[in-house]
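To fix ideas, we reproduce below a protein record of this kind.
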Amino acid sequence: MLDQISHPISKEIVVSGLSYLGYRRVIDALLAEGKTTGSNHSESNINYTKMNVARMNRVDKIGKVSAEMESLIKSINNPQTWLIISEAWCGDASQSIPYMAKLAELNPLIELKIIFRDENPEVMDHYLTEGARSIPKLIGLSKDLEEELFTWGPKPKYLRDRFKAYKVDPKGISPKEFSEGTYLWYARDRNKSIEQELFEAISEIQNK
């Protein structure tokens, strides 16, 4: 049994969260109005959101869950809530959330909900990454929300380390080139790193 912890995630927050399909519908509706999620509806954020829709469509279509991962997810026999903190303009979220949704679909005991970072600062500030409001963030909880089972995010370890190294020494690589390299890596990785990291986190819980 895990120790009970204190966190700001209430039943009301979970209920207000969106399903993956609901999340996609909200994004599409906002784009139709020339907007995105959050308060910053700049042209760049809207363009990022449009690109992210294409990326999510791609993962929806070609993303695969390994047999080993599928077996692990189906072995979960206690109800869980998977709460994701995100925003539509976040590129990393567009790569990982569709895959997480595929996992949740494999087991009816997993309820996946998505909330927006800027609308839930009290939750986001409890799950900072090195002091930053980095997203996406996945928090696995018991159904009654009394136990935090695992967390993941905002991106695979390889990319977190790559970003740290870039901040220390860009080595002449422009931000645009760095970003393009990130999405090339995602395309080549095909969610394998996300899967491995989540497999380890969920296995640890299952083995307790």
